[in-house]
Amino acid sequence: MKFFNRSITLDCYTSDRQAYEHAKIQQAGKFIPDWWKSLPRDATRPTMRQCAGFLDLYKRSFVLPLWSDIDVSIAGDQFNWQYHDQRSNAEKHENSQFGEWINEEEVLHLKLVSPWSIKCDKDVFFQWSDVTWDKERIFKYTTPTAVVEYKHQHATNINLIFNKEKVKEIRLHHGTPMVFITPLTEKKVVLRHHLLPESEIEKMFTPFPAVSIGRYMKAKKHAKKKESKCPFGFGKN
């Protein structure tokens, strides 16, 4: 019976055929870096191959890969970006949204507008974290950590913080793993993908900007109120 189903389903929706065919959200195990694979298997000399924290991260997480090449250039106060697919979007937040945490003399912020929306059938939290093990040793950009849920909000936009000292010009390649999505639950998570017309996706999901916490909490409270009915028909309507 569906009521007793203990697994969790993540439905991933996009209207971008290229993302659907070549940049699906997938199990993190498919993105294990080559340097790790080349480590010796000799158990008498411990390496990262025996690191339980690394193995569990890639075993339990999902990865959202980049859906198009994007060029980023920084020259003084000039900050430019260009997707190769000529249609994807990015946004730059005002520094006032970050307070003193952002210093434009040192770093710059860019939000990649993801073509994917996620819907979860249960109210479960997921941790977003940077895919540090797939990067160069000297990080040119980072993805801030966060905790999200996909039952009441569905966006998967990626915030990036670029190090101005390290980045003058950089190309992020299609397929690059951008973020770990780690379920904060022991239950099995089933991943499904759907390609739909943009008009249908717009009807399914109402966007909630990160700064609009009031709208998000109001919608979540309303949804929880509707869900509070007894599944067997008892209680108030």
Q: Can you give a write-up of this model?
A:
This protein is an alpha+beta fold. It has one domain (15-227). The chain is 17% helix and 32% strand. It has five helices and 15 strands. It has helices at 17-22, 34-37, 52-60, 198-204, 213-227, and strands at residues 8-14, 26-27, 62-65, 70-75, 78-83, 89-91, 107-113, 117-120, 125-130, 141-142, 146-149, 158-163, 169-172, 177-183, 189-195. The strands form four sheets. It has a five-stranded antiparallel beta sheet with strand order 2-3-14-9-11, with helices on one face. Strands 6-7-12-10 form a four-stranded antiparallel beta sheet, with no helix packed on it. Strand 4 and strand 5 form a beta hairpin. The chain starts with 7 loop residues before the first strand and ends in a 10-residue tail after the last helix. 19% of the residues are buried.
Total helical segments: 5
- Overall strand count: 15
Pairing-aware structural class of the strands and helices? alpha+beta
Task: State the distance separating the first and last CA atoms.
Answer: 24 Å
Total domain modules: 1
Helical amount among residues, as a percent range?
A: 10-25%
Strand order of the largest sheet: 2-3-14-9-11
Task: Give start-end ranges of low-pLDDT stretches.
Answer: 228-237
Major beta sheet summary: 5 strands, antiparallel
Order of helices and strands: EHEHHEEEEEEEEEEEEEHH
Which value, in Å, is the CA radius of gyration? 20 Å
What is the typical, i.e. mean, pLDDT? 86
Shape: globular
Strand proportion = 25-35%
Summarize the structure.
This protein is α+β, with helices and mostly antiparallel strands and 237 residues long.
